[in-house]
Amino acid sequence: MTDFQNKLRATPVVDELKALREAIWFNDGVKPAREGLLRVGLTQADVEDAQARLRRFAPLIAAAFPETAATGGIIESDMTPALNMQAKLAERAPIAGRLWLKKDSHLPISGSIKARGGIYEVLAHAEKLALAAGLITLTDDYSILLSPACRQFFSQHKIAVGSTGNLGLSIGIMSAKLGFHVTVHMSADARQWKKDRLRAHGVEVMEYEQDYGVAVEQGRQAAASDPACFFIDDENSRTLFLGYAVAGLRLPAQLREKGIVVDADHPLFVYLPCGVGGGPGGVAFGMKLAFGDHVHCFFAEPTHSPCMLLGMSTGLHDAISVQDIGLDNKTAADGLAVGRASGFVGRAMEQLIDGCYTLSDESMYDLLALLYQTENLQLEPSALAGMSGPQRITASQEYQARYQLTATMMENATHLVWATGGGMVPASEMQGYLARGRSNA
Ligand SMILES: *Cc1c(COP(=O)(O)O)cnc(C)c1O
């Protein structure tokens, strides 16, 4: 306990977190990518393996979800410049370089970043079962798994997951499509429409009055007592992490297509909204594999739920929760309402994440309304968490000096704001978000 107290006291940013101020923390423990990557315990080959698995499943995805036919069953998002938004933001504070949006908000099937990791882990589990049962070989067209006989096989197996909403949507929809019996354990903050949509897909939804940590624990326990049930562990899963990491391997080609150069003179900054850490951690891992030291990765969290900033800055990782420093873990950014970070991600990425910052719900709503006004794009609040990053990095002489980023290099920079969700938010719900953003302005 004294060690715990000492670590807290030795970390000045904790006082800012306690006061709910919008804080920024730069990681003194960052190592050159080649060195830091060794700490992760996973390799480029692991991510390539995940990428190959997603390719094997592409014919199945294309057949099951017609909206993915155009990309041949590959679930990937577009990236777009946000020039109007950049101009609008610059009225308040400058952004050196160019602002881009990575539109995971518009990923097919579940409209959030969870369409990467969540769907991937369901597919990895289904493949394992189907290979063992002799239903497929690695070279088959996997769309045969959609046949009634295979669905009948999967229906004898169960999948369970705890979620604040979006992970449940991804895992629920994918699992139900294959025929699994799937149960989603939802925390109190999960939106009603997400529960309704899952039930409409035949997913069993269990509701809890507590937060995400409790929902996950309930799911874990329910699964532990049933050998036919596979629990997808958002707090610890390497499989989920690898599903997210594939994004990094695909990004170099996408950047080339857009004419964007990333090298020593043209840094890439990536801003990732962070809940438990698997999504942003996995993407950041893929980015570091792809771009090494030329990419700088930042995690963005709500002022009421800064679990990763707290865990990484104190070095306590999952041994501390935001409740331990008196915060309530209540935020409108439902994907980010997580009080305790993944112990796996924080430790694995300890030498690769350049920093974390927090922003208030009001800031997210404000940015949400501005993005709609300037770019006609509708996102959910959590997906705006990355949007205040570029101005904060542009303003930080400390950070630029640390990495010897000159003014010219900053002018050459690409700021990629990961827009993590919102594509499936019902219109009435979105009207409420926009109204709240406008009234704050
Ligand atoms: C889940 C989620 C995140 C963060 O992912 P974690 O793996 O929980 O860190 C960010 N944005 C949205 C919209 C999400 O649903």
What keywords describe this structure?
441 residues, alpha/beta, 7-stranded mixed beta sheet, 19 helices, 46% helix, globular, binds pyridoxal-5'-phosphate, lyase, pyridoxal phosphate, Ser/Thr_deHydtase_PyrdxlP-BS, D-serine dehydratase
Task: Tell me what the structure shows.
This protein is α/β, with parallel strands linked by helices and 441 residues long. Helix content is 46%, strand content 13%. The chain has helices at 2-9, 13-18, 33-36, 44-64, 83-90, 114-132, 148-154, 166-178, 192-200, 212-224, 238-257, 278-291, 307-314, 343-348, 361-375, 389-395, 397-402, 407-411, 427-440; strands spanning 24-26, 79-81, 98-103, 158-163, 181-186, 204-207, 229-232, 268-273, 295-302, 355-359, 414-419. It has a seven-stranded mixed beta sheet with strand order 1-10-9-8-11-3-2, sandwiched between helices. It has a four-stranded parallel beta sheet with strand order 6-5-4-7, sandwiched between helices. Helix 9 (192-200) links the parallel strand 5 and strand 6 (204-207). Helix 6 (114-132) packs parallel to helix 8. Bound molecules: pyridoxal-5'-phosphate. Residues 112-114, 166-167, 273-280, 335-336, 380, 382-383, 420-421 line the site of pyridoxal-5'-phosphate (PLP). Pyridoxal-5'-phosphate is lined by residues 112-114, 166-167, 273-280, 335-336, 380, 382-383, 420-421. Monomer.
Q: How would you write the strand order of the largest sheet?
A: 1-10-9-8-11-3-2
* Through-space gap between termini: 44 Å
The total count of strands amounts to 11
C-alpha-based Rg, rounded: 21 Å
Reading the helices and strands in chain order gives HHEHHEHEHHEHEHEHEHEHEHHEHHHHEH
Bound ligands, named by name, code or SMILES = pyridoxal-5'-phosphate
Biggest sheet character: 7 strands, mixed
Mean pLDDT: 96
Percent helix? 40-55%
**Shape field:** globular
Task: Give the helix/strand class.
Answer: alpha/beta
Low-pLDDT stretches are: none
